Amino acid sequence: MSELILGRYRGIPAQDGAGVKLTRIINQPQLRYQDPFLMLDEFRSDDPNDYIAGFPPHPHRGFVTLTYMLAGRMEHQDSKGNKGVVESGGAQWMKAARGIIHAEMPKQESGLMWGFQLWINLPAAEKMTAPDWADYPAHALPVWHQGEHQVIVVGGEYEGLKAPIQQPEQRFLMLDIRPAATTELKLASQQHRCRLLYVYQGELELNGTTLSQGELVRLNETDALALQSINEGRAILLAAEPIGEPIAQYGPFVMNTEAEIHQAIADYRANRLHL
Q1: 241 a known binding residue?
Q2: Per the database record, which ranges form the Pirin C-terminal domain (predicted)?
Q3: Domain assignments of the chain as residue spans, ordered by start
Q4: 76 annotated as a binding-site residue
């Protein structure tokens, strides 16, 4: 194992919502929170029985969700009156903050549904701020090219390209990396203290180490990356600065203390979570 790679992990099968089958990559026994990343799920199936029940109305408080779709269509509706459909290549950002109730339901009855949902923590100072939501189609996400290589900037800023999704306090960065097979793609380090790479398709050679589909690696903050595609290898890069605060979680509520969790539950039961 190279000094660049600090650990190698695989997700586990899981279910969420009304029975949607998925792979839980972050926040599972082998890989817990990766501050500020609380959870990363990949959902991928062309069997409607695996996804058709979707994620009926449910609450959140204290963090941000980011949904990035590779294939398929998912509709969002929430208690603030927001409504939109995220489609292939698009991203959806929701700041739950002090509270929101939302539903995410498939807008298709057949075909491939493939994407990711990422939970990003908020610092204590922002957990009880106003909720927000935005939907971005594929054409709104900037693309950086290096020869035949392609890098989609889903969140943050890279090589002068600024994505519409930002979390500047943590210097959040999310890249969809699509290297060519003919040459190496070289990515400079942005010196994030938390840096993760997840291979979602094919295989990749990373600085001389072969990674296969379904592998996540923790990376050091300093080394540049040299990536080459094998079997149409593609990956998601996540990077950010840790918040460094206590995390208290109960299901869809993520706060700093158990008392704040109890308050979130009480607010939800009293129908004032999102007020």
Answers
A1: no
A2: 175-273
A3: 8-139, 141-244
A4: no
